[in-house]
Amino acid sequence: MKTRSIQLLCMILALTVCSSLAFAQSEAKKPADDKRAPIVKEIESQWQGAKKHTLAYIDAMPENAMSFKPTPEVRTFAEQMLHLAFWNYGLPEFAGGKANPYGKKQDVLEKREDMKTKAALRKVVEESYDNVLAFIATLNEAKLLEVVPTVKETRLSVLSHALDHQTHHRAQTTIYLRLKGITPPPEQ
To answer: What is the pLDDT, as a whole number, of residue 83?
Structure first.
């Protein structure tokens, strides 16, 4: 009985040491010089996740369904994604980011036929997320919490609205995928 207890104790000790070493190794892989405020890292992480999920939705939709729309009154799948991309450029512009390369009218981008192939659509949507992430990379906590005079909200609030907006339009395309018999990619 005593031997069994000693063996169990040794096993627990070995597991503890191994898990501690594994944790130390995973911590060592993190950049030590990332001294950004947790709130900046958090908003960046949320946008990185949103980018991943949106691109997975585009990847899931077949090429021949880019022009699909459930009813005549709504945007096509590609137009939903182009609308999302336009505002991924536009909303950070209000917060002090660079100008929207597609101008001030969202329908200009949404109606561009050259953007409605799967490859072109994926490219412009990916670049729109990269634009937001590049803007976030320029921020520190003080800048993130600073009120933007033109909109009378903090940059964090503008980025949160933009995050909500793109999630809304990605969620709308869930129905498009389902109507095409495709299970939407998981969002974890």
So the answer is: 93
